[in-house]
Amino acid sequence: MSSPRLIFFFLTFPSCRFILSALSASQRNVVNCALCHRSLPVFEQFPLVDGTLFLSPSRHDEIEYDVPCHLQGRLMHLYGICVDCLEGVHKIVCIKCKSRWDGSWHQLGTMYTYDILAASPCCQARLNCKHCGKPVVDVRVGMQYFSEYSNVQQCPHCGNLDYHFVKPFSSYKVLEAY
């Protein structure tokens, strides 16, 4: 288990107002890590967090609360990932291919406007249709931009429109901390 740290990072000013508004509307001052469920307090006036925040177009039922927010007219959901999961203190693996998720390249203390877990698919299962299970995109080709993995895509096989690449948080497993 990692030792407690007092390392917090500031978010940019426009993000501060957006985050504080979303949390206030949901009557929350804490988010839980999407992976290990560690409590991440978000302090008043300056949304400080020991990790990073991100927006997902899908509501994840594994998290007991919902922090809905609107970004450019689109309903999104605010989630966080703690620094221990991002930096590899907790070993995070894909339940499909068993490869390790690496969050170390994400900037601490920022807010991504896309689902960071969807943004770097490790295997073909992460790019398959949620309806028919066939590939929407070939993992060897991928998408041009990280944020595209959080957009609605049409399955070329069944025609279903969905956020196919935004998988449940439970599609990752948190192994013991180092």
TrEMBL record:
Q: Where is the signal peptide?
A: 1-18
Pfam families from the xrefs? Headcase
Q: Which segments does the entry list as coiled coil?
A: none
> What's the protein name?
Headcase middle domain-containing protein
Keyword annotations of the record: Signal
| Organism listed in the record | Xenotaenia resolanae
The organism's superkingdom is given as Eukaryota
InterPro entries per the record? Headcase, Headcase_mid
Occurrences of domain Headcase middle (ranges): 17-169
